Amino acid sequence: MQSSEGRTVAALLVSALCILHSALSLDGAAAVQSPSPGKIEVLKAVNSLTPHVVGLFRDPIGFKQTANGEYYVFDRRGHTVYAVDEAGAKATKLVQIGAEDGRLIEPSAFDVAFNGSFAVADAPNGRERVQIFDAGGIRTGGFLLPGRGASRVVLGTLALSGVATLTFNGRLILMSHPETGWLFTEYTLTGVPTRSIGQLRKTGHESDRDLHLALNAGIPIADPSGGFFFVFMAGQPMLRRYDASGGLVFERVIQGREVDPLVAAIPDRWPRRAETELPLVAPAIRTAAVDHAGRLWVSFVQPVTYVYDGTGEKIRTVQFRGAGLVAPSSLWFNKDGRLLVTPGCYEFLTR
Asked: What's the total number of domains in the chain?
């Protein structure tokens, strides 16, 4: 017969095993729900614009959707903004090529507010211009930036610095402007700067002003939960988060084995240039966006995207697959949380 002491020990062992089993089960469930940030997840497109509509675009680098379901596509090489119906089957030109107000010439950036109004940056005669349009493509305002545009971060024939990193919410515009001595500036719709945010990072090239500015160019993004993210596009990949008052919350170096070769190829010395020449700096990062939960998605020039939570910790590594692997030129989240991606004008579920 088993003693009372033996029964007690056995009961304790059974209880401990049950607790251990429960803990392992919970860990396993968590692992299923939250993939390791080191494992590449391949997200497959669940929708896209119809092929005959996508075939109209020469170089779509902006794909957005308003609250009423209508899509907007920014075709850089076509100097055109299109509206596409919710079914993705019918496209209408809203704004077309031209240097005069209300038209586009050498456009570089585009963003849409959820009410359908949108902003486009272009460069008539080399002057950086921002124009505001209503949902029907009628110009409602705009302004010229002082000086002449300087394209310091270039990918192929596409300039990615200056007004090429415009963010628009219907009331204010954010642009990367290291020439001011700050990372980015907030403008009213009439072009009045209201504040500048973010000290320039140290680059080791402060004696070469143009190179130093190029390595401080980046993408400013308003966080829907408050504050801002800033993602440096060239040089050592980095991100910063600022609170709503413009104070620095944290800074993170962006690292990962998928982009190690890209980072290793960044030069530490640059060739001498004539005084009138600007350095042509290739980016490491192509685009970035923040989802409705405040997670930052950062896409490299290679087809890989890192996702960071609100504390700056990397939580996912993602690739997108449409007809093939997609290296995003733009990312944007619609009201339902679906991720809209160019090229290809695809939609992805993010979970």
From this structure: 1
> Would you say residue 170 lies in a domain?
yes
Which residues on adjacent β-strands are paired with residue 288?
Answer: 298
In this prediction the pTM is 0.87
334 belongs to a structural domain = yes
Token pair recorded at residue 242: 């600022």
Mapped onto helix, strand or coil, the DSSP state of residue 111 is strand
On whether the CB atoms of residues 195 and 203 are closer than 8 A, the answer is no
Question: Residues 248-277: pLDDT tens digits?
Answer: 999 999 999 999 999 999 888 877 777 777
d(CA 138, CA 132) in angstroms, rounded, equals 8
Q: Which residues make beta-bridge pairs with 108?
A: none
Domain that holds residue 274: 38-348
Summarize pLDDT for 107-155 with one digit per residue, the tens: 989 999 988 999 999 989 888 899 999 999 999 999 998 866 666 677 7
Biggest CA–CA distance in the chain, Å, is 100
Q: Report whether 349 contacts 338 (CB < 8 A).
A: yes
- Domain membership of residue 77 (yes or no) is yes
